[in-house]
Amino acid sequence: MTQLTLPLTLPIIPFEGIDGCGKTTVIKRLQDDSNNGLFKACFTREPGGSVVGEKIRSLLLQDLDTEDESPLTRLFLFMASRSSNIDKVAQRALQEGKIVISDRLDASTYAFQLWGGECRELEKFFYQSRNVILSGFPIQYIYLRITPEVAALRRAKRPESTQNFLDKLPIEFHQRVFEGYEEFFGRLQRQSTLVENPLHVVHVVDASVSEDEVYKQVKDIVLRAWGSQTP
Length: 231
Ligand code: TYD
Prior knowledge:
This protein has 8 helices and 5 strands, in the order βαβααβααβααβα. It is of the alpha/beta class.
């Protein structure tokens, strides 16, 4: 593992939320703003990001063999991808003076594997591993919050060709994932009020409003993290 040079001042900004929350659109707009020189950022995603992470991504999301693997094996694969992404991509970018914008991070593992996949007995293990992989990194989560009902309506409008396996899972699965996010971020919010300069904070953004309104809030958070204010 690369030695971490502390303190890191810029944060990792993960975008999190249930399928259909609008993450992709928001991240695309941030990419445009970053390309236009508004802030320096490295864009990454999970699973994926690093060379090894991307290989794990195809194993997890495209290779049917992994569908049969146990929840524990799949959990390890998501975590291995994260460890590589943090080590090879995020840490380097932060040290080069870039914000790291990540399409998903560990809240997804908590919500999808532990709650969606009904493996809540792995919670203690999840938090221990999380501490190993992410401790020392400033993280400002952006939780794009929508209810499973609104998300289902949005997903139903997607063209058949762009629907993935998640769109075929029952609403109960998405409901559990939603509850997992609520639990993860609720706990993080409670913890962050207990210390003066929390390393990990969460910004909850109501993602049921218009795309422009959501983006305005997101951009404001990112620019504040970058150290400037929106005009
Ligand atoms: P992706 O095509 O990026 O979906 P989305 O646009 O909804 O983010 O695929 C990522 C999938 O991986 C998504 O279904 C959520 C899932 N996932 C987990 O189950 N656990 C995790 O830890 C992460 C990071 C993602």
